[in-house]
Specification:
By secondary structure, the chain is mainly alpha-helical. It has one domain: Up-down Bundle (Rhopdopsin 7-helix transmembrane proteins), CATH 1.20.1070. It has eight helices and two strands, in the order H-H-E-E-H-H-H-H-H-H. A two-stranded antiparallel sheet has the order 1-2. The longest helix is centred in the N-terminal third of the chain and has 27 residues. The protein is globular, with a radius of gyration of 18 Å.
Length: 232
């Protein structure tokens, strides 16, 4: 791993831990926001920061010939992306009883997307493209659920929550599309993007999809009436 990659990772670690601290400070200020949203935001940034710290220290990776697979990324994603989706689902079902079957469908599709990405990253050509294809099917299914079934739940909460959900979903979708795109263009796929650029992009994308998304959620909900304690 080149020194510049290590610098990228350390910058990311600082941003994640600073984000966690920011979310904690916000939790002391805005009491009307459900505690679960603060938990998701803080847990996501702490976990992701720890995962990337391992890569900054030269751990969490394996060499496959001339190619590096950063399995610590997938350890990060398999935990943090379901938490991001739980945060989004909590907004969509803000005032209603949680639909755990629907939530389970979302999480399963997401985890399958991540795991097949890891298997593909550990595979040689053409098997890497096969696993990438399976992952993309899961990704499409996941987004279909988010844009249809979960969005319908958000509509039931009233116009204000629906607008917040739509903005959050658009934001998250735009950045999440970048992950499989960078994967297929980078060393794991076609090799059009070099390793250093691949590392930089996989630092920038999660900064916006984790810290950025967490701030977006909390600031969007700060003036929304809190749900009743009986709603779960």
């Amino acid at each position: 791993m080149e020194r510049i990659e290590s610098i990228y990772y350390w910058v990311y670690v600082v941003i994640m831990f600073s984000g966690a601290l920011t979310f904690y400070i916000l939790s002391l200020r805005f009491k009307n926001i459900p505690k679960e949203e603060y938990f998701y935001a803080i847990a996501i940034t702490l976990w992701s920061g720890a995962a990337y710290a391992s890569m900054a220290l030269g751990q969490g990776l394996v060499f496959l010939g001339q190619r590096i697979t950063y399995f610590a990324r997938y350890i990060d994603w398999v935990v943090t992306t379901p938490l991001l989706l739980l945060s989004l689902a909590a907004v969509a079902m803000y005032y209603s009883k949680k639909d755990y079957i629907l939530i389970s469908q979302i999480v399963f599709a997401d985890v399958l997307f991540i795991v097949t990405g890891l298997v593909g990253d550990l595979s040689s050509r053409p098997l890497n493209f096969f696993w990438y294809g399976i992952g993309m099917v899961s990704f499409v299914v996941l987004n279909w659920i988010l844009w249809t079934k979960l969005r319908d739940k958000a509509k039931e909460q009233g116009e204000k929550i629906r607008k917040i959900y739509d903005r959050l979903l658009i934001y998250l979708t735009l950045f999440w599309i970048g992950y499989p795109l960078v994967w297929i263009l980078g060393p794991s796929g076609l090799g059009i993007i070099d390793q250093v650029t691949d590392t930089l992009l996989f630092v920038v994308l999660p900064v916006f999809s984790k810290v950025g998304f967490g701030l977006f959620v909390l600031l969007s909900l700060k003036h929304v009436p809190a749900p009743s304690k009986t709603e779960s």
